[in-house]
Amino acid sequence: MSEIAEEDVTNFIVSLQRRSSSLVTPFLELPMPWFGLDIGGTLTKLVYFEPTDGNDYFESEEERISGRMIQRYLTANKAYGDSGIRDEHLELNNVTVDEREGTIHFIRFPTEHMPIFISLVKEKGFTLMSSTVCATGGGAVKYAKDAEMELRMQLHKSDELESLIKGIEYVAASNSDECYYYEDPLDDEKCRKVTWRWSKGCCASKHIDHSLQSQDGLQYPYIVVNIGSGVSVMAVHDQNDFKRISGSSIGGGFFQGLCCLLCGCESFDEAIILASKGNNKNVDKLVKDIYGKGYDNVGLPEDTVAASFGKLSNREECEKATRADLAHSALVTTTNNIGSVALNAANHCGIDRIVFVGNFLRVNPIAARLLSNAMDFWSRGTKKALFLQHEGYFGSVGCLEELVAVTEMRRKQREDSLSQSSNSSSSPM
C-alpha cells in the first residue's frame, strides 16, 4: 500500500469537518467503512469489513484517502493503545457482505476504556464519512449520547439477541470449521478438538451457496448459551424464530469477581491463568469426602463436587488452599452451574443440540473443557457441549449485517419519497 501524504490527510479532515454542519447526519447509502459494534458489560467487540474485490467503492478523493487511512491503521496493527487487540487468527477471508467480497477483522478492548476509544476514533477521523454505526449491548444505550456529541454520529441500537443469532448463523455459514466439541475433555493426554459441521439448513445469509453446505452438524432447533458477564439461554427454531428461555447471574462476572475478592486478581485473563494452575479438589467438598466413596445409587461418582468451597469451613483445610485452588474452584463452580442451567433448558424444550458462545470462553479452554465434562455428566452422556471459534464476536457481526439492512430500508424510504414527490408534481391541478 502506497503512503498517503500528511498534507492530503490534513486537507481531507479539514474539508470533511467543514462539511459536517449538523450534529448527526442521517445516511441513505452505505459508505465505507463498515463497522459492527457490541458494547458489553466487560468487553467491547468491534468488527471491520475490508473489501478486497478490487472494485472502486470510493465516490471522491476524500473518501479514497479516508478509506486508505482507516484500512492502513486497522490492518497494520495488532494492538491499539494499551488495551485494544486485533485477533488476527480469527479474521474471515473471502466472505461476502452486501454483495462485496472482503475480509472481516475482529477487534476487542475493555468497555471501561470506551472514552479512550471515542477519543481515538475522533482523532483519526474515522466517523467523518459515516454518520451511523449499528451497535448492540448495554453500552449502545449507555454511550449513545457521548457518540452523538463527540463523534457527530448515531449509534443505531440493534436488538441484542437478534444480533447474536444473525452473527452466529452468518459466521457459521461462512466458516465450515467454526463449530467443534471436545473428546475426553478432562484427560490432558487424550483431549482433542473435533470439528462439528454446520448444516446447510442453518445458513441465514442469502449470499451463501447452500448447495455447498454439508447436511450433518448443528441443525434446527438448537440451544445457544451466551456467557458474558451473566448468562442468557436462547432456543432457536429458525433464523427468525428464537427467544430467551432462561439465564443465570453466575457467569463470567461472577467468576472474575470471586477471583478479584479471594485471589487478588486484577483481570479476567489473570484469573484464568491462575485457575489453570490450581486444583478445586483442595477447596470443594466431594462426594467421597461425605460417603467415603461414590454414591452409586443415584449415579454420583466419588469425584463429583457435592459442595463448592465446602472444605473452607474447616480451618486446617482452609489454610492449605492456595490462590490457584480458589480460582480453579470458582471456575468449576461457574461452569457446573452454567452446564446445569443449559441442560435444564434443553430438556424443557426437547432440544438436543447445545452451543456455548461468549467472551467467557475467550482464551479459556479450561472452562470449555469443564463445560464439556459438566454437560456429559448432567446429561449422562446423551448430549455434547458445542463451541464456536469466534466465541464473543457474534453480536458485532450481527450488527454489521444490520447496517446493510438499515441502509436498504432507508434507501427504499428515499426512493418511495422521491416517487411520491414526482407523482405529486406531475398531477394536474
From TrEMBL:
GO MF annotations, alphabetized: ATP binding; pantothenate kinase activity
Pfam families tied to this protein: Fumble (PF03630)
Keyword DNA-binding included in the entry's annotation: no
Tree of life domain: Eukaryota
EC primary class: transferase
Pathway annotation from the record: Cofactor biosynthesis; coenzyme A biosynthesis; CoA from (R)-pantothenate: step 1/5
Record keywords: ATP-binding, Coenzyme A biosynthesis, Cytoplasm, Kinase, Nucleotide-binding, Transferase
Cited InterPro entries: ATPase_NBD, Type_II_PanK
The protein's Enzyme Commission number: 2.7.1.33
Keyword 4Fe-4S appears in the UniProt entry: no
Subcellular location(s) per record: Cytoplasm
Stored SUPFAM superfamilies: Actin-like ATPase domain (SSF53067)
One GO location term (cellular component): nucleus
Record field: catalytic activity: (R)-pantothenate + ATP = (R)-4'-phosphopantothenate + ADP + H(+)
One GO BP annotation of this record: coenzyme A biosynthetic process
CDD domains the UniProt entry points to: ASKHA_NBD_PanK-II_Pank1-like
Coiled-coil zones: none
Protein family per UniProt: Belongs to the type II pantothenate kinase family.
Protein name: pantothenate kinase
Source species taxonomy: Eukaryota, Metazoa, Ecdysozoa, Nematoda, Chromadorea
